Amino acid sequence: MARYFSRGQMLRLEPEVRSLVNALCDKLLRSTDGPLDVNTAYSCLTSDTITQYAFGDSTGFVAQPGWEPNYRAPLQTFLDTVYVWKFFPFLLNIIRIAPYIAKYISGDIGLLMREMFEVIPARIQKAIEARERGEAEANIWTDMLESPLLPPEEKTAYRLAGDGFALMFAGTETTASMLTLITYYLLAQPATRQRLEDEIKDMDPRNLSWVALEQKSPYLGAVILEGLRLGHGLSSRAPRVPRDEDLVYRKGGYEYVIPRGTPIGMTSVHVHLNEDIFPDAEKFMPERWLDENGQRRHDLEKYLMAYSRGSRMCQGINFAYCVLYVVTAAMTLRVMPRMSLYKTTEEDVKYDHDLALAQPKRGTTGVWVTIS
Ligand code: HEM
């Protein structure tokens, strides 16, 4: 899939992202009739961007009259069960019967199952047929089907739907929760927001470009990196297995050898909250990513683990950055001047526990805002 997520591909997609972001800002500016959960609004946007890109057919959540339905609650329900599957993997056998019972299950899990077994396979089929009729360019799915490298069992409709679901899941709540955390801190720290606004205020807020923003505003980049640091991304210990070499770790005159074949996992939280690397680690301080000339400190970026590292690191990193840059800038210029936090404190975004993705304290209802 990698070539579909290159920076060049993302630049081709950018006009679609921009028009969805403009629609999101317009809709938020009309939402003056009461408090709203900003994570849900972002979840609608990220579902639309990823489905538009991966299937050529958007979920249309931003365009609908309200904010429901969306995938936020169903995906959260899925996250709530993540450790059950992890520690009792034999229970995954239940999934074999899931396609047959999906239509009889109600609520969030039912929605999620229908998405996986009906909606996503139909979207993939549509993308394949559009290509066959010559109406669409090659896409992720037609490339997989035509790939001589993949064995037939990797090309079944069931298997492709699994990949489609993984993409949707990987691209939706991750990016939405980062945007939510960044929005919280920009609203809670007016000086931070002011500095950002000052750096980008002469840009056309309806025609923002990722590349131009990157060049124009190191501070925007720093705000995003700080959001990714405190948002942690995947906080669970995603394991890696060194297959061909023993790992040697030296500390205090001792040498420890971890034999090849041993799964090793580490959480991003340990690095992101390490006071030796990030002093006052619990604080949201974008300045830490800039040097004394206000330019990006690239030496520090090697400690950013939100996208993980190595051969299994996030494939959607360019996609995520494009969305994070354009949304944060558009919200800062267009919506945040009229937006205030509503019954929300730092506790509602701060890392508390791990459910694959970093979670705030139990019982929080998220980041709520009012728009005047
Ligand atoms: C800020 C947003 C995002 C964060 C923090 C994030 C984080 C991550 C992390 C930590 C992993 C590695 C998982 C592991 O170690 O096993 C990962 C994998 C992945 N991500 Fe993301 N992600 C984000 C956005 C996206 C988006 C927008 C997409 C799709 C467009 C995406 C697609 C993927 C895919 C396909 C993988 C699997 C890569 C592989 O196993 O080879 N991600 N992501």
Average pLDDT score: 92
| CATH architecture classification name | Orthogonal Bundle
Alpha carbon gap, first and last residue: 43 Å
Q: What fraction of the residues are assigned to beta strands by DSSP?
A: 5-15%
Instruction: Record the strand order, biggest sheet.
Output: 1-7-4
- Taken in chain order, the helices and strands follow as HEHHHHHHHHHHEEHHEEEE
Which sheet architecture does the biggest sheet show?
3 strands, antiparallel
Q: How many helix segments?
A: 13
Give a count of the beta strands, DSSP E runs of length 2 or more.
Answer: 7
Distinct ligand kinds = protoporphyrin IX containing FE
Protein name: Cytochrome P450
Pfam families: p450 (PF00067)
Cofactor: heme
Transmembrane segments: 318-336
Task: Please tell me about this protein's structure.
This is Cytochrome P450. The chain crosses the membrane at residues 318-336. InterPro entries: Cyt_P450 (IPR001128), Cyt_P450_E_grp-IV (IPR002403), Cyt_P450_sf (IPR036396), Cytochrome_P450_monoxygenase (IPR050121). It holds the Pfam family p450. This protein is mainly α and 372 residues long. The chain has one domain (2-234, 269-371): Cytochrome P450 (Cytochrome p450). Helix content is 50%, strand content 7%. The strands form three sheets. Strands 1-7-4 form a three-stranded antiparallel beta sheet. The radius of gyration is 21 Å and the shape is globular. The termini are far apart. The model has no long low-confidence stretch (mean pLDDT 92). Protoporphyrin IX containing FE binds next to helix 8 and helix 13.
